[in-house]
């Protein structure tokens, strides 16, 4: 009887652990998908704005723009848009250097990096013309924290 009960506890524990690991993996995939979609929206938006900037470039010096923080969780997410190697748009919490490993650009895909002592999950992509690079990031601890009900 004790052996059967012990076996039941071991099997139940193994099943619970496997279920937790699978759920965690699926959550990570979902959050990565969210970052990729946000980056795609920024690429499309920025392509139009870059055309307007190029038309006005003769009259104005190109400067980066800091987007306002619109939500109380905004410091937990960040984005940057680079055009021809220059930062043209960033969220209020994003650094001025690229959100790649060691502050360097990286080509495309997902990275987990440290910015100011915090771990961030970053997705980067390029525009169709390859002169636009977009970074979208979310704090790792925030993305994987259990919900507060």
What would you say about this model in short?
This protein has 2 helices and 6 strands; from the N terminus they run H-E-E-E-E-E-E-H. The chain has helices at residues 2-56, 140-143, and strands at 65-66, 77-83, 86-90, 109-115, 118-126, 132-139.
Q: Could you explain the architecture of this structure?
A:
The protein is of the alpha+beta class and 149 residues long. The chain is 40% helix and 26% strand. The protein has a six-stranded mixed β-sheet with strand order 1-3-2-6-5-4. A hairpin with a 5-residue loop joins β5 (118-126) and β6 (132-139). The model has no long low-confidence stretch (mean pLDDT 76).
Helix/strand/pairing class, anyone?
Answer: alpha+beta
Radius of gyration: 21 Å
Overall mean pLDDT = 76
CA distance, first residue to last residue: 40 Å
With strands numbered from the N-terminus, the spatial order across the biggest sheet is 1-3-2-6-5-4
What's the total count of β strands?
6
Q: Please state roughly what percent of the residues sit in beta strands, choosing from under 5%, 5-15%, 15-25%, 25-35%, 35-45% or over 45%.
A: 25-35%
> How helical, in percent, are the residues?
25-40%
Number of helical stretches of at least 4 residues: 2
Low-confidence stretches: none
Helix-strand string: HEEEEEEH
């Amino acid at each position: 009887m004790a052996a059967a009960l012990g076996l039941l506890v071991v099997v139940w524990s193994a099943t619970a652990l496997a279920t937790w690991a699978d759920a965690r993996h699926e959550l990570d995939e979902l959050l990565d998908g969210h970052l990729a979609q946000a980056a795609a929206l920024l690429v499309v938006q920025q392509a139009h704005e870059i055309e307007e900037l190029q038309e006005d470039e003769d009259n104005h010096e190109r400067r980066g723009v800091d987007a306002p923080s619109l939500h109380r969780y905004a410091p937990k997410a960040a984005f940057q848009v680079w055009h021809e190697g220059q930062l043209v748009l960033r969220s209020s919490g994003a650094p001025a250097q690229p959100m790649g490993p060691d502050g360097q650009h990286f080509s495309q895909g997902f990275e987990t990096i440290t910015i100011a002592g915090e771990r961030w999950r970053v997705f980067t992509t390029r525009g169709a013309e390859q002169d636009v690079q977009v970074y979208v990031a979310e704090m790792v601890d925030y993305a994987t924290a259990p919900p507060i009900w």
